[in-house]
Each structure stands twice: as C-alpha cells, then as structure tokens.
Design a protein that fits this description.
three-stranded parallel sheet; alpha/beta; single chain; Rossmann fold
Length: 67
C-alpha cells in the first residue's frame, strides 16, 4: 500500500491495511512516501507482519537501484 497522506493520518491507514491483509491475505507492506513517517503506525504494521518503508520516494529509490 503506497501512502501519500499526512503522517498524522497514517495510523488509521495502517489499520485499513491490516484489515485488507487479514481479509485478502495479499497485502505485504506499507510505503510512506517522502516526508511521511509515524513510529506508531510502523510498529502497528510490523506487529501484523507488514513490511514498512517510511520517508522515501519510490521513484528516487527505483532510480538508485536501476538508474
């Protein structure tokens, strides 16, 4: 799940992600885009087995890996 919402909204978004994982079993992680970080949300996601990336831009990270 790719998140482009303010940090203070991420706990509720992670709760929704956990619900999707429980119901569908397919969600593997939560990516909080550059400038977005929330320790509580990250801890909650990890508790339910979700990978967490915070404060990173997917495009920037992709370019670092594959040019």
């Amino acid at each position: 799940m790719n998140v482009f919402r303010p940090s203070e909204e991420t706990v509720e978004i992670v709760k929704q992600a956990i619900d999707l994982k429980v119901r569908l079993g397919k969600l593997r992680g939560v990516w909080l885009q550059e400038g977005i970080a929330n320790k509580e949300a990250a801890e909650l996601a990890r508790k339910y087995g979700l990978m967490v990336v915070m404060d990173k831009c997917i495009m920037v990270e992709h370019r670092k890996m594959w040019g």
